[in-house]
Specification:
The structure is a single chain. With 115 residues, the chain is α/β, with parallel strands linked by helices. The protein has a single domain, classed as 2,3-Dihydroxybiphenyl 1,2-Dioxygenase, domain 1, CATH 3.10.180.10. It is built from two helices and eight strands; from the N terminus they run βαββββαβββ. The strands form two sheets. A four-stranded mixed beta sheet has the order 1-4-3-2, covered by helices on one side. The longest helix is centred in the N-terminal third of the chain and has 12 residues. This is VOC family protein.
């Protein structure tokens, strides 16, 4: 069975959400299915998209798991975004980012154990 993910993030303001997620993800959307959605391809068969849906905006929660999350967080900071929190669970860290609506996107993965 083939597996893929197409995860949606409800937002109020399409233009600002596209700008924010472009900075977070470090690339422009892969495609625009219509005038209220923008889609980013993260890897083969793994996509995230924003969709205008004011009634559900702010309730999204997700995490992008990476081999080297700390380096990615540094690159995100260079693009002007800073995490609002960092969670550490043994050798796993998650840097928490919130968009303007309050949707949460974590950048996480395994890191060197804390001394």
């Amino acid at each position: 069975m083939a597996v893929g993910v197409f995860a949606g993030i409800p937002v109020r303001d399409y233009k600002s959400a596209v700008e924010w997620y472009t900075r977070l993800l470090g690339k422009e959307p892969a495609f625009f299915p219509n005038d209220v959605e923008a889609v980013w391809r993260l890897a083969e068969d793994l996509y995230v998209y924003v969709i205008v849906d004011a009634a559900r905006a702010g309730g999204g929660v997700g995490m992008i798991w990476l081999d080297d999350p700390a380096s990615e967080v540094e690159r995100i900071a260079e693009r002007g975004l800073r995490p609002v929190d960092v969670e550490r669970h043994d050798n796993v860290c998650k840097w928490v980012f919130h968009d303007a609506d309050g949707n949460e996107t974590g950048i996480g993965g395994e890191v060197a154990p804390a001394p």
